[in-house]
Amino acid sequence: MAQLSPDKYLSVLDDLLAKGQTVQVSVRGMSMFPLLMKGDVVLVKSVTYVTLRKGDIVVFERNDIWVAHRLIHKTDGKLRTQGDGNRVIDATLPFSSVKGVVVKVTKSRWLLARWATKWPGRTLAYTYIVTGPTFCLLGRIASKVYCMLKKQN
Length: 153
Fold this sequence. Notes:
The chain is α+β, with helices and mostly antiparallel strands. It has a single domain (about 5-150), classed as Umud Fragment, subunit A (Ribbon), CATH 2.10.109.10. About 30% of the residues lie in helices and about 30% in strands. It has helices at about 5-20, 120, 125-150; strands at about 25, 40-45, 55-60, 65-75, 80, 95, 100-105. It has a 7-stranded antiparallel β-sheet with strand order 1-2-7-3-4-5-6, covered by helices on one side. The radius of gyration is 16 Å and the shape is globular. The model has no long low-confidence stretch (mean pLDDT about 90).
């Protein structure tokens, strides 16, 4: 079976979401640490601007890749988002960039992931000024410890 190119894969996901389907995608980065990490699998469904709520994990397209960050603020068709483990808020993005929202974490090595879309995770939209830089620092420390342990084995 031939593998889809990244562009074709995202196009297929776009089509499925447009038809009202929920799609399953794998998390690739660490910007949502500690609730979502590389290798976690999430369900994404389409969303309207009206139904978006502060604290949702919004999936949007930036530089031809999909990004999942927490919604911090919305106004006049524009959104402000931030990764839970990022120090700064993302640049404002138009709602037209939004692909959907994460509705569930279906696979994770990490127990905390189950709270990513529930109220404990959603509260991070209100505490991001403190939690973002803190999680960013913790993520860097965890990464260094992981690399040190990997070298010892």
